[in-house]
Design brief:
This protein has a domain at 2-170: TIM Barrel. It is built from eleven helices and seven strands. The chain has helices spanning 2-14, 26-40, 60-68, 79-90, 92-95, 101-106, 125-134, 152-164, 236-240, 248-258, 289-292, and strands at 20-23, 51-54, 72-76, 111-114, 184-187, 204-209, 212-216. It is an alpha/beta fold. Helix 3 links the parallel strand 2 (51-54) and strand 3.
Length: 302
């Protein structure tokens, strides 16, 4: 792996093209950073805004190495959906810093938040913000203490200005200020004052991108353009209409009542044959590799 990665990264660095790599396990991140450090001694990474995606089990040492190489980390809320299973397998102590968001920020590493939807988590940004603020799964399991939870404004900033860093757009995206793009949303309730558990049920009633209305409901509906059908055509959004018709809390309660496991590919009351969600797939034991798979990233192995 190292030889192929070195040649690719060297080419990208020489041509000043930003790059990102998906890595969950600290063991994988260590090997990746070994290569990056070797290349950067000859072709400095200054100003490239390269990044690592996921990094759930990254160590403090490797966080510092990312910072030294002027890289960033993109985090996603997979643990909001997989926290109970992770705790059952590895314990609450391991869960408490998965991922260590506060450590990343304290080290001065640029951090951006997203969903990695729709394969390993929901596309809904408010579920992710609920996770960052509450430190809980969608089922309500407490995962993080105060040392790994964010204030609401901190969490929102990771979603807006934090993620703009990855595309070199931090000087024109992510803040409501003169000179930045006119991107904003009017919400169904106030993110900063609703009860913590209600964050995940927030929706946009009006969304403006670049000064143009791209979404509207209720009294803002007439301002919104007609949208194309959801893709892919099998998306649950096509059938259920997204999150706006029922609070997510009710779905979480239903999942808790129906929690079960079964063999991969077999039928049950909740899943059709060969349509089994990753949470209910059997997975091999033997360390963290048994939880997220050998590659550590379900983005492309769902």
């Amino acid at each position: 792996m190292e030889g192929e990665l070195e040649s690719v990264v060297r080419l990208l660095a020489e041509r000043r093209w930003p790059f990102r790599i998906h890595a969950t396990y600290d063991e994988s991140i260590s090997r990746v950073l070994d290569v990056y450090e070797k290349v950067s001694r000859e072709v400095p990474f200054d100003g490239l805004h390269w990044l690592i995606d996921h990094a759930e089990t990254i160590s403090e040492r490797n966080i510092d190495r990312v910072r030294a190489l002027q890289g960033g980390i993109a985090i996603q809320h997979r643990m909001a959906y997989q926290g109970e299973y992770f705790a059952e397998r590895y314990g609450a102590r391991a869960l408490a810093q998965t991922p260590p968001v506060r450590r990343m920020l304290s080290a001065g590493v640029p951090v951006g938040a997203g969903t990695d939807a729709t394969r390993v988590a929901s596309y809904n940004p408010w579920v992710s913000l609920y996770w960052l603020v509450s430190g809980r799964t969608v089922g309500g399991l407490p995962m993080y203490g105060d040392d790994n939870r964010l204030e609401r404004e901190e969490a929102l900033r990771l979603w807006t200005h934090g993620s703009a860093w990855f595309s070199h757009e931090q000087d024109r995206k992510g803040l409501l200020k003169p000179g930045h793009f006119a991107d904003f949303a009017l919400l169904s309730s106030d993110f900063f004052s609703v009860p913590e558990d209600a964050i995940k049920d927030l929706t946009s009633v009006l969304t403006v991108v670049g000064g143009w209305v791209v979404h509207g409901t209720g009294e803002f509906g007439p301002l919104a353009p007609e949208l194309p059908s959801p893709m892919p055509d099998w998306s649950p959004v096509s059938r259920f209409g997204g999150y706006q018709h029922a609070p997510l809390a009710s779905a979480g309660h239903g999942l808790a009542l129906e929690r079960h496991t079964h063999a991969p590919g077999t039928a049950c009351g909740a899943h059709a044959p060969r349509a089994v969600h990753t949470e209910h797939r059997s997975s091999p034991g033997g360390g963290l590799f048994g939880f997220w798979g050998a590659l550590g990233c379900a983005c492309h192995v769902f």
